[in-house]
Amino acid sequence: MKAILPVTRTLKALDGAVARFRAKRETVALVPTMGALHAGHLALVRLARKKADRVVVSIFVNPAQFAPHEDFASYPRRLSADVGVLGREGVDLVWAPDTAVMYPQGFSTRIAPEGPALAGLEDAFRPHFFGGVATVVAKLFGQVRPDIAVFGQKDYQQLKVVTRLAADLDLRVKVIGLPTVREKDGLALSSRNLYLSAEERVRAPALHRVLETCAERIAAGRPIKGVMASGLTALTRDGFAVDYLEARHAETLAPVKSAKDGPIRLLVAARLGATRLIDNLAV
Q1: Does residue 70 surpass a pLDDT of 80?
Q2: Same domain for 219 and 170
Q3: What is the pLDDT of the chain when averaged over all its residues?
Q4: Are 151 and 251 within 8 A, CB to CB?
Q5: pLDDT in the model for residue 2
Q6: Which residues sit opposite 248 in a β-bridge?
């Protein structure tokens, strides 16, 4: 009979579980999530299993990265179902603290990341976001003390922020990014896809198609400014309210003017109805 997947809810229980791994000199990979797991999360878990002896998945809907007008209260929470899925994937431990454990009374320290966190992309529209992400990720790294942490490239700016965080604070964690997992029609997998209506779900893959077209045109030598302007027009025509559609340096996220400034990453955020979608693509 397969053992029941342990779910830890306190720091003491987490410390004990991780200590047992370390006593056997086993390496540990962490996959941080907010739950509502989909195939993209499971791809992260499978990569983690290849990279380390033990896999810990954290499930915590982090209030610090939601603004008051955002969807914290309605964000999907289904811990029991998620644990069942993770058990079938061979995960060794789930770390599922509640808010009082992560942010106890009197908590007053937050990280204010710079560099890629101030690139004028997500931060321009969600100025609270990367401070919340950096703070909770630093706490997770300190709590689990993993050798490796696996994140998806769909949240590309976040990946760069977390990578910089680990390096700048000497957290001794190797951050690995997994290429975006997509539906057959190209839509990037996201927990927020559940919010799309049936009609919006049909239109949503246009976001990725426009990125593909822009990337092809830039690679063919077309001027970036004109290509991105055409992409913006196409998205607007398809019913998206675009927050940004940008060509940036793939490592620094600095603006680029030509393909010679590369490597280049295209990044987009747009609303379709009430749902905000993000995506990115290498040129």
Answers
A1: no
A2: no
A3: 95
A4: no
A5: 54
A6: 255, 265
- pTM to 2 decimals? 0.93
Distance CA 217, CA 100 (A): 50
Catalytic residue among 38, 41, 69, 208: 41
On whether both 33 and 56 belong to a single domain, the answer is yes
Query: Could you give the CA distance from residue 117 to residue 113 in angstroms, rounded to a whole number?
Result: 6
238-247 tens-digit pLDDT: 999 999 999 9
Examine the domain organization and report whether 39 and 164 are in the same domain. Answer: yes
How would you class 26 by CB atoms within 10 Å of its CB: exposed for 0-12, middle for 13-18, buried for 19 or more?
middle
Question: What integer is the mean pLDDT of 40-62?
Answer: 97
Residue holding tokens 């302007």?
229
Taking CA atoms, 245 is separated from 75, 116, 173, 253, 272, in Å, by 25, 16, 31, 13, 15
Q: What is the pLDDT of residues 198-220, one digit of tens each?
A: 999 999 999 999 999 999 999 99
- Contacts of residue 221, Cβ cutoff 8 Å, sequence gap at least 6: 259
Residue 1, pLDDT score: 43
Residue 58's domain comprises 7-178
Largest CA distance in the chain: 61
Please report the pLDDT score of residue 265 as a whole number. Answer: 98
Q: For tokens 């997770």, what's the residue?
A: 140
CA–CA distance, 21 with 136 (Å, rounded to integer): 23
38 catalytically annotated? no
CA distance 164 to 194: 31
Does residue 245 sit within a domain?
yes
Q: Is the pLDDT of residue 53 over 90?
A: yes
Angle at 274 between CA 270 and CA 277, to 5 degrees: 30
Question: Cα separation of 107 and 79, whole Å?
Answer: 25
Buried b (16+ CB within 10 A) or exposed e, 217-238: bbeeeeebeebbeebbebbeeb
Q: Which residues contact 229 (CB under 8 A, 6 or more apart)?
A: none
- Strand 174-178 relative to strand 241-249, pairing: unpaired
